[in-house]
Design goal:
Elements: H1 22-26, H2 72-87, E1 92-94, E2 104-107, E3 115-126, E4 129-133, E5 141-147, E6 150-156, E7 162-168, H3 169-182, E8 192-197
Antiparallel strand pairs: 1-2, 2-3, 3-6, 4-5, 5-8, 6-7
The protein binds zinc ion (ZN).
Residues 31, 135-137, 177, 181 line the site of zinc ion.
Length: 205
């Protein structure tokens, strides 16, 4: 499902960095690994980039509340979360990272899908993988984190339709990482060893 070269071990390599504008490259941060900048797809004039909260902000440590119904405001939040994630070169973002304590996650691991996970619940997990992992809320850093190699999650989409999603490798990692945000947990809580600095090359372009 996810090819080896797109694995999280490529966190330092920034394969897409050469195609970023200089200002984008300057702000490059990684959620799990580098990815290409903002895509045209799905970007509307109404979208807004929100401020990403960083470690030390208490909101990242709070439990998020379930979403009971979809409304215009929550739809706008979801659009803004995608916009913010793409702008920051991430592959996943959870609502508390933009200061909203709701159980909403967006993920795009470049498998052709834009996943919206509302009130997600992990049903099943198998195996384990230890890889470098980053977070938009911990800019410029990464660490080794062991996550399941496979997860199955139940969630609601932006139309509040229930669905199940199975993910392996990077998608499994993204699901686990983002669901942890909804419980107020960060990867530093479960990392192995120390936080490491990302290489600077992409930022100096
Ligand atoms: Zn994160």
């Amino acid at each position: 499902m996810i090819s080896a070269e797109r694995d999280l071990t490529t966190v330092h390599k920034q394969p897409g960095a050469g195609r970023l504008s200089p200002c984008m490259a300057g702000r490059l941060q990684k959620e799990y690994r580098g990815r290409e900048a903002l895509r045209g797809k799905g970007v509307s004039a109404n979208m807004a980039i929100r401020q990403v909260r960083t470690m030390g902000d208490d909101i990242l440590r709070k439990e998020c509340k379930p979403v009971k119904e979809m409304n215009r405001r929550t739809k706008q939040l979801i659009e803004d979360m995608f916009e913010t994630m793409y702008e920051a070169n991430g592959v996943g973002l959870a609502a508390p990272q933009v200061g909203v304590l709701k159980q909403i996650v967006v993920i795009d691991v470049e498998d052709g899908n834009q996943y919206v996970l509302i009130n997600p619940e992990i049903l099943e997990q198998k195996g384990s993988r230890t890889e470098a992992e980053g977070c938009l809320s911990i800019p410029g850093k990464h660490a080794m984190v062991t996550r399941p190699a496979y997860v199955k999650v139940r969630a609601w989409d932006e139309e509040m339709q229930e669905y199940e999603l199975e993910g392996e490798e990077l998608l499994a990692r993204a699901i686990c990482h983002e669901c942890a945000h909804l419980r107020g947990e960060l990867y530093v809580d479960v990392m192995e060893g120390e936080l490491m600095d990302n290489e600077e090359e992409a930022d100096k372009e």
